[in-house]
Amino acid sequence: MLGICRGRRKFLAASLTILFVPAITWIYLFAGSFEDGKPVSLSPLESQPQSPRYAASSQRESLEVRVRQVEEENRALRQQLSLAQGARPRRGNHSRTYSMEEGTGDSESLRAGIVAGNSSECGQQPAVEKCETIHVAIVCAGYNASRDVVTLVKSVLFHRRNPLHFHLVADAIAKQILATLFQTWMVPAVRIDFYDADELKSEVSWIPNKHYSGIYGLMKLVLTKTLPPNLERVIVLDTDITFATDIAELWAVFHKFKGQQVLGLVENQSDWYLGNLWKNHRPWPALGRGYNTGVILLLLDKLRKMKWEQMWRLTAERELMSMLSTSLADQDIFNAVIKQNPFLVYQLPCFWNVQLSDHTRSEQCYRDVSDLKVIHWNSPKKLRVKNKHVEFFRNLYLTFLEYDGNLLRRELFGCPSEADVNSENLQKQLSELDEDDLCYEFRRERFTVHRTHLYFLHYEYEPAADSTDVTLVAQLSMDRLQMLEAICKHWEGPISLALYLSDAEAQQFLRYAQGSEVLMGRHNVGYHIVYKEGQFYPVNLLRNVAMKHISTPYMFLSDIDFLPMYGLYEYLRKSVIQLDLANTKKALIVPAFETLRYRLSFPKSKAELLSMLDMGTLFTFRYHVWTKGHAPTNFAKWRTATTPYRVEWEADFEPYVVVRKDCPEYDRRFVGFGWNKVAHIMELDAQEYEFTVLPNAYMIHMPHAPSFDITKFRSNKQYRICLKTLKEEFQQDMSRHYGFAALKYLTAENNS
């Protein structure tokens, strides 16, 4: 009892101190100003004689300094008082009320941060340890969201100085895309873990949601249950976020959380939750303007102890009885929980989530470019949103959109990285190469890991019921982009394309495709971006990427410069059945022709094609420069053939064929121009594939300027020497692998 009385006396004394110190201070200051008609000096130095105007100004500035000092002392006393209150034992079943100040960050610091910008906030934050891992969670689903994630990750990687661990809650599509991307990106000190979003649907599917993000927009609610139980804290980001600073600065804010604060959020910068946007607008309950959940700091360990799962579920069930559905997905439910429990929130300064939707107060979050930390494109309009400084924001976003991701493969010096088997194997293979070898760059290209973004655009494919479907496979670079529309008009079946582009070119392609009615009308075309790296065009790697990601049992191995005859897709499906391709090792040859005319009236039948051959409008492919490549097709026989016929392999044979999807890959040692298809056909022959020419099929090569690689082949003697060396090594490898049967390739080469 005596202890309680003493505690109350201390509390009373502290309270009186807070009340009287400011009063005494002001009395002292103002009394001093009237004594003997002289102002009291608030400076430790004696003031010099001054003019009346300057003296008044100096007096006012000194007074402001002293008042700020007194306010700081009062703030410290209030803090001590609140700590003393918190330490007092709570007796009985008294309920405790929480003020807004207790449930947010320091409002004075918040205002100072908005006015002064980044520097003051950064200076106050405890430093994050040099090699401390920062955990980031992102919910991602579908093809378009996967592209957004890449831009977000680029902006984070550009500024970061710490190891990163990304926790990606992804559907099957996003997982396939992003797993391949990060595996081929090979960024040091970055770890990726995936969590199956489809398995989480049952956790939130009972909540009606009107937001465009759909069911995936609710999955941040279940992160405490989804993420590893030993993970204590995580930064949660929307996919439409762009970082303009080191994410470690945001991670450091966790150290500012006090008491029961478990959520770090920025206030919503629109009037949505105020309910005054339009007549009869009825938003979910929120504290004041509410909070935006595009950027969240989650203290997972404390949330689990608070039974967060039960807390948000009960709140959602109660509110849905009157609201019927959410309008802003998880954000509505987070705000409803916070309305009931304001002590959960630490309010982040608004520059940690500058929200660029229409009708927001985002311009109050910054006064200069240096104030910006996180930009949030949270409007369905995205880059077309209205904002006074939208051009600057758009340019910042486009900078990361087109930034070369290969430059982000930099080491974090002084931080040990987890052992990466793929990276170690790559380094071992490269170390075995002789850097003094004149063909070193050719050999090195075989082991280069190119960053790969699968399904860059939306893709849909419905498998054919009769299992005869055929995918056209090809590869291209930016200078062949104009062929895409024509190919789509000639081939109605599925297509798998590998595009060799830089990050900037990938965005040009995206704009080109989105502006094309023909391309946007086709959803069964898979576009796989292989990002540029090195000096050679990795033609066979591109073919392998396109081959690997087909969804049909058969594929037509073509090139982007060829237009297939009208109706070839259906003809090949019938031929697959007729020639029993499912149960036999066959390669069905589509005879190749070419024209030198840029404008061609495409033949609609074999008879029309033969007529054009006779008139000299068309030629058999490479008739003038490389007859051996297609001579074994036997065009003389094809002219009159009505049934498929078999041909034998010959040296340098490189036809375009239809094969099962399990056929061998192309050999990656061949890059640029020369022997890339020849080697593949040779391997098919070694594996005893039967070459069968289709009598009523054809394709026509369209003219174009010579590629850069063929120019190098023709002008660079060392290029030709290295190609010859690689060719001989390939033949030796074939002999070792296939034994006696492969000797004919050496003999044929010597006789040719």
TrEMBL record:
Which cellular compartments is it found in?
Golgi apparatus membrane
The record's keywords, sorted A to Z, are: Glycoprotein, Glycosyltransferase, Golgi apparatus, Membrane, Multifunctional enzyme, Signal-anchor, Transferase, Transmembrane, Transmembrane helix
The pathway where this protein functions is: Protein modification; protein glycosylation
Q: According to its record, how does it sit in the membrane? A: Single-pass type II membrane protein
Q: Where is this region: Disordered?
A: 82-106
Which ranges does the record mark as transmembrane? 12-31
Classify the source by domain of life. Answer: Eukaryota
Q: Which GO terms describe its biological process?
A: protein O-linked glycosylation via mannose
Name the catalysed reactions: 3-O-{beta-D-GlcA-(1->[3)-alpha-D-Xyl-(1->3)-beta-D-GlcA-(1->](n)-4)-beta-D-Xyl-(1->4)-Rib-ol-P-Rib-ol-P-3-beta-D-GalNAc-(1->3)-beta-D-GlcNAc-(1->4)-O-6-P-alpha-D-Man}-L-Thr-[protein] + UDP-alpha-D-xylose = 3-O-{(1->[3)-alpha-D-Xyl-(1->3)-beta-D-GlcA-(1->](n+1)-4)-beta-D-Xyl-(1->4)-Rib-ol-P-Rib-ol-P-3-beta-D-GalNAc-(1->3)-beta-D-GlcNAc-(1->4)-O-6-P-alpha-D-Man}-L-Thr-[protein] + UDP + H(+); 3-O-{(1->[3)-alpha-D-Xyl-(1->3)-beta-D-GlcA-(1->](n)-4)-beta-D-Xyl-(1->4)-Rib-ol-P-Rib-ol-P-3-beta-D-GalNAc-(1->3)-beta-D-GlcNAc-(1->4)-O-6-P-alpha-D-Man}-L-Thr-[protein] + UDP-alpha-D-glucuronate = 3-O-{beta-D-GlcA-(1->[3)-alpha-D-Xyl-(1->3)-beta-D-GlcA-(1->](n)-4)-beta-D-Xyl-(1->4)-Rib-ol-P-Rib-ol-P-3-beta-D-GalNAc-(1->3)-beta-D-GlcNAc-(1->4)-O-6-P-alpha-D-Man}-L-Thr-[protein] + UDP + H(+); 3-O-[beta-D-GlcA-(1->3)-beta-D-Xyl-(1->4)-Rib-ol-P-Rib-ol-P-3-beta-D-GalNAc-(1->3)-beta-D-GlcNAc-(1->4)-(O-6-P-alpha-D-Man)]-Thr-[protein] + UDP-alpha-D-xylose = 3-O-[alpha-D-Xyl-(1->3)-beta-D-GlcA-(1->4)-beta-D-Xyl-(1->4)-Rib-ol-P-Rib-ol-P-3-beta-D-GalNAc-(1->3)-beta-D-GlcNAc-(1->4)-(O-6-P-alpha-D-Man)]-Thr-[protein] + UDP + H(+)
The terms describing its cellular component in GO are: Golgi membrane
Molecular-function annotations in GO: glucuronosyltransferase activity; xylosyltransferase activity
Q: Which Gene3D superfamilies match?
A: Spore Coat Polysaccharide Biosynthesis Protein SpsA, Chain A
Family membership: In the C-terminal section; belongs to the glycosyltransferase 49 family.
Name the UniProt record assigns to this protein = LARG1 glucuronyltransferase
| Gene coding for it | Large1
